[in-house]
Amino acid sequence: MENRPLEYDYTVAKMFMLTTIVLGIVGMTIGVFIAFELAFPGLNTILGSGLAEYTNFSRLRPLHTDSVAFGFTVSGIFATWFYVGQRVLKVSMAESKFLMFVGKLQFWLYVIGVAAAVVTLFMGYTTSKEYAEFEWPIDIAIVIVWVLWGVSIFGLIGIRREKSLYISIWYYIATFLGVAMLYLFNNMEVPTMLATSPAGETNIGDWLHSISMYAGTNDALVQWWYGHNAVAFVFTVPIVAMIYYFLPKESGQAIYSYKLSLLSFWGLMFVYLWAGGHHLLFSTVPDWMQTMGSVFSVVLILPSWGSAINMLLTMKGEWQQVAASPLIKFMILASTFYMFSTLEGPIQAIKSVNAIAHFTDWIVGHVHDGTLGWVGFMIIAALYHMAPRVFKRELYSKSLMAAQFWIQTLGIVLYFTSMWIAGITQGMMWRAHDEFGNLAYSFIDTVDVLHPYYALRGTGGLLYLVGFFMFAYNIYKTMTAGRRVEESELQNASPMGA
Ligand code: HEM
Ligand code: HEM
Question: Taking a C-beta distance cutoff of 8 angstroms, is the pair 397, 474 a contact?
Answer without folding.
Answer: yes
